[in-house]
Specification:
Blueprint: H1 2-13, H2 21-29, H3 33-38, E1 55-59, H4 66-79, E2 88-92, H5 98-109, H6 114-127, E3 132-136, E4 156-160, E5 163-164, E6 177-181, E7 184-185, H7 188-196, E8 203-208, E9 218-222, E10 228-233, E11 245-249, E12 255-260, E13 265-269, E14 276-281, H8 288-300, E15 306-309, H9 311-320, E16 334-340, H10 347-351, E17 359-365, H11 380-384, E18 388-395, H12 399-411, E19 417-422, H13 427-438, E20 448-453, E21 460-462
Parallel strand pairs: 1-2, 2-3, 3-4, 4-6, 5-7, 6-8, 8-10, 9-11, 10-12, 11-13, 12-14, 14-15, 15-16, 16-17, 17-18, 18-19, 19-20
Antiparallel strand pairs: 20-21
């Protein structure tokens, strides 16, 4: 019985080792390469399993120095040549000074430079039918190999801080995801060619936040297949001079995010009403010419049904409203907005442009105690269409907060639910705020007020 028990115990402890190799590889594929390599000490059976995993996901921080990093990758690529393909190659390099160490490496191994090695690794990955390529450098480096432009198996391409040379021929027939972060491009035309040479591209991110020696004057995104587009242009940098025009023509977009601290000139064509737009752009309206640019920008977005507007953008809108009314957003049914306390008085004017709005989610910033809130007019959407209001910022019972809740309850004729979160410092404060809310008149007899208590995350009260 003891033998049987011992045998049973061993079987129980090492049950996973009885799985076939392909299942073990599938399990290890979902962990970091460093973790997968650690399994090689478990037993003889596990010693070489990790070499069959079609994945290499490494960070220089995992190694004592760049030389160790290079030796590991080179040995992996040599020992795993039996594998038919390499599904994913992800390399993150964050050494502060790789180039100084490269001389020692060149002397020891006969290679020219770290960039030569990385180019060699990428070329090998392309040869081995890589599907996911993710390269992150700490700063702009030498050109990426041209082989990536014609990798027919590539599905996802993520590049950060690399230089992309021009190429006469670009064809990425299976690429669905492309994230380009702070890269240097040969010219505007090449970046446009790179994007348009991906016939099934669905997810594109272009970020320009750091200084590069190139100047991208025009960013053109033309794609019939694109579903998600993120454009992030940080104009706060003192050297920021590029990308003055962004042209977007992607009729299949489902999500569009624009972040721009210097307000680029946008040309947005064929934007579907089903596109969810997230805008975080800053602009000034000092003169009429700049106001015309702002008006054109919002007119191009006027067809959408779902929009998120940042605090920065709404601050600019409130200044714009001092000169003229916003364009109408006749199809907008959901609005998520962040408002400064000083801009709350313009809320009614903003909602005047959203006559068919059904859902409004608000976040309040820098709301001051005892500050009065005056909302004189009642926009059309409150009288005829607004069904849901949520105030995400926890309410403390300040005068302006209660006035805002009162404004929606007393003027929203078809409101079905008003949701809020209460944040109280003392036990009796909750009951005081709840009594204030109970006394408020409701224009809609079917309106449900849901107050969630912040201290008890799962607790909510229906009034």
């Amino acid at each position: 019985m003891s033998k049987r028990g011992t045998s049973g115990c061993r079987t129980e402890e090492d049950r996973i080792s009885f799985l076939p190799d392909h299942l073990l590889c599938q399990i290890l594929y979902n962990v970091h390469t460093k973790t997968a390599v650690m399994t090689s000490v478990l037993s003889t059976r596990w010693r070489t399993i990790w070499l069959s995993i079609p994945l290499l996901d490494l960070h220089t921080d995992d190694f004592p120095n760049f030389t160790a990093f290079v030796i590991f990758i080179s040995r992996y690529l040599d020992l795993s040549t039996g594998s038919s393909c390499l599904h994913k190659l992800k390399l993150a390099l964050r050494f502060q000074d790789i180039s100084s160490e490269s001389w020692n490496l060149a002397f020891l191994s006969g290679y020219l430079s770290p960039y030569y090695l990385i180019t060699k690794w990428i070329n090998k990955a392309v040869t081995r039918k890589v599907q996911h390529l993710d390269i992150l450098y700490p700063w702009i480096v030498e050109m990426m190999p041209l082989s990536i432009y014609t990798c027919v198996t590539l599905v996802s391409l993520k590049l950060s801080n690399v230089s992309l040379a021009d190429s006469e021929y670009v064809s990425l027939p299976r690429l669905k995801i492309m994230h380009l972060v702070d890269n240097a491009y040969a010219n505007d035309a090449f970046l446009e060619k790179l994007i348009s040479s991906c016939p099934v591209l669905e997810d594109l991110t272009v970020v320009r936040n750091k200084y590069t020696e190139d100047y991208l004057e025009v960013l053109r995104v033309r794609s019939q297949s694109l579903k998600s587009l993120v454009v992030d242009l940080d104009g706060r940098k003192c050297w920021y001079r590029d990308c003055r025009v962004v042209v977007i023509d992607a009729p299949g977009l489902k999500y569009l995010s624009l972040k721009d601290n210097q307000f680029t000139s946008y040309v947005i064509r064929n934007l579907s009403s089903s596109t969810k737009v997230d805008t975080d752009v800053s602009f000034d309206v000092i003169d009429s010419s700049k106001r015309r640019v702002v008006r054109r920008f919002f007119t191009m977005l006027s067809n959408v049904r779902d929009m998120t507007i940042s605090q920065t953008t709404l601050e600019g809108i409130c200044v714009y409203l001092k000169h003229e009314q916003l364009p109408q957003f006749p199809h907008l049914i959901r609005l998520d907005a962040v408002l400064y306390n000083s801009d709350l008085g313009n809320l009614a004017n903003i909602l005047e442009s959203c006559q068919n709005l059904k859902s409004l989610v608000l976040e309040l910033s820098n709301l001051k105690e005892e500050e009065l809130l005056i909302l004189a007019s009642v926009p059309k959407c409150l009288r005829s269409s607004l069904e849901y209001v949520e105030i995400k910022t926890p309410i403390r019972g300040d005068v302006a907060e209660i006035e805002l809740v009162k404004y929606f309850l007393e003027n929203s004729a078809v409101l079905k639910k008003l949701k809020m979160c209460l944040r109280c410092w003392r036990m009796n404060e909750e009951s005081i705020i709840l009594m204030q809310l109970l006394r408020l008149r409701r224009c809609s007899t079917s309106c449900e007020v849901v107050a969630q208590l912040q201290e008890l995350e799962e607790t909510s009260l229906k009034l």
